[in-house]
Design goal:
Elements lengths: L5 H18 L3 H17 L2 H13 L3 E5 L5 E5 L1 H9 L17 E6 L6 H13 L3 E4 L2 E4 L4 H10 L6 E6 L5 H8 L2
Amino acid sequence: MARVGAAQRKALLLLEAGVALAFAGSPRTSFRIMRHVAREWRAIDRAVLRSAIQRLYQSKLIDTRDHPDGTTTIILTEEGKQRCLTYRIDEMSVQRPKSWDRKWRLILFDIPEKRRAIRDALRHHLRRLGCHELQRSVFVHPFDCRDEVEFLIEFYQARPFVRFAIADDIDNALHLKQKFKI
């Protein structure tokens, strides 16, 4: 399976949102989806989007249909739909390995106050991934979560403000081991 970058993941999720809109059961759900998609659409870099769509097409995750009026429709392939399910931001999870490698993953961030919404959303998603909050802007996880964290960083365009580190030891390791049941 071809590796998909963060911009491609975001493009896939935006395409999936279009599919979800088609199946929304109520006007309230439709408006909520449209609001989210509009916000993400405004935030995406158009050149990056074009490049991501080209790579998705080459990876056979999307297909295009040309219409007689000159328009083109981008359609998720079955593999693209499967990949979207993998990267649904609200359903992401960190896989627990059979044995722990005895490394701690630290996520540190310093997101400016003017980007408070991004900071709060990142905090929310880190908690959902099972990360433990050591301090207000420092989270820890014992298992490999780099891909998930990288996806969140790209999704929220927070790269300049977030750092990821791997540590061999933490002074409160005993407490964290109990928390994570390792």
